[in-house]
Amino acid sequence: QVQLLESGGGLVQAGGSLRLSCAASGRTVSMSNYAMGWFRQAPGKEREFVCAISRSGAFTGYPDSVKGRFTISRDNAKNTVYLQMNNLKPEDTAVYYCAASTTRATTLTALTFRTDYWGQGTQVTVSS
């Protein structure tokens, strides 16, 4: 069993930046056994894929909506994955969820990243 705990959410003005963190824990958990990802869900909308990173960190995937603004990274020694969000827009407002997947895909998309574990989520609010 893998527990994921997000942190770093908050309120920021449009154009600002936030950095989210997600720490993985569990009895014998090594985050290097999982691809990691971020999803978000705005009120009244479905949960959507934000980005993902492969087990080693060699491959990443982003949808067009965040490409060039968001960057995912990981530190397997710390069992932590990060999401650096720059040039935030009001439409980025959502609850952001960390996710872990056993996928070995190198092309990481909403279709290839099948989530095995979810975090509880952290709120990000971008004011205009």
Explain how this protein is built:
The chain has 128 residues and is mainly β. It is 0% helix and 47% strand.
Topology:
Blueprint: E1 3-7, E2 10-13, E3 18-25, E4 35-41, E5 48-53, E6 60-61, E7 70-75, E8 80-85, E9 94-101, E10 117-118, E11 122-127
Parallel strand pairs: 2-11
Antiparallel strand pairs: 1-3, 3-8, 4-5, 4-9, 5-6, 7-8, 9-10, 9-11
Computed structural class: mainly beta
- Number of helices, counting only DSSP H or I runs of 4 residues or more: 0
Q: Can you give the helix content as a percent range?
A: under 10%
Averaged pLDDT: 96
Uncertain residue segments: none
**Helix/strand order, N-terminal first:** EEEEEEEEEEE
Number of DSSP strand runs: 11
| Integer-rounded radius of gyration | 14 Å
- Biggest beta sheet attributes: 7 strands, mixed
- Termini gap: 40 Å
Summarize the structure.
By secondary structure, this protein is mainly beta. It contains no helices and eleven strands. The model has no long low-confidence stretch (mean pLDDT 96).
What characteristics describe this protein?
four-stranded antiparallel beta sheet, 128 residues, seven-stranded mixed beta sheet, mainly beta
